Amino acid sequence: MITKEMTVGQVLRTYPQTVQIFLELGMHCLGCPSSTMESIEGAALTHGKKPDDLVEQLNKSLVQN
């Protein structure tokens, strides 16, 4: 399960199927050096997204795959 405290890098490494969600939301965090240290919450806020909504979408992608 993904939480907003996890780093973007951690989520991408553990759940590669989430890549599409990030891309669809315009969050091109895949190659960003900050992704290794930035939390999902921080990344969401940086990109004008609600952290809880992002976490929900990411967790839904885990169930669908």
Structure notes:
The protein has four helices and no strands. 52% of the residues lie in helices and 0% in strands. The chain has 65 residues and is mainly alpha-helical. The chain is globular, with a radius of gyration of 10 Å. Helix 3 crosses helix 4 (51-64). The chain has helices at residues 8-14, 19-24, 40-46, 51-64.
Straight-line N-to-C gap: 13 Å
Number of helical runs? 4
Mean pLDDT, to the nearest integer, reads 91
Number of strands: 0
* Sequence stretches where pLDDT stays below 50 over 5 or more residues: none
Write the H/E string, N to C.
HHHH
Sheet bearing the most strands, described?
none
- Report Rg: 10 Å
> What share of residues is helical?
40-55%
* Class derived from helix and strand content: mainly alpha
Strand content: under 5%
Global geometry: globular
What's this entry about, in short?
With 65 residues, the chain is mainly α. It has helices spanning 8-14, 19-24, 40-46, 51-64.
Which helices and strands, and how do they pair?
Layout: H1 8-14, H2 19-24, H3 40-46, H4 51-64
Helix pairs in contact: 3-4
Task: Note the main attributes of this structure.
mainly alpha, 65 residues, 52% helix, 4 helices
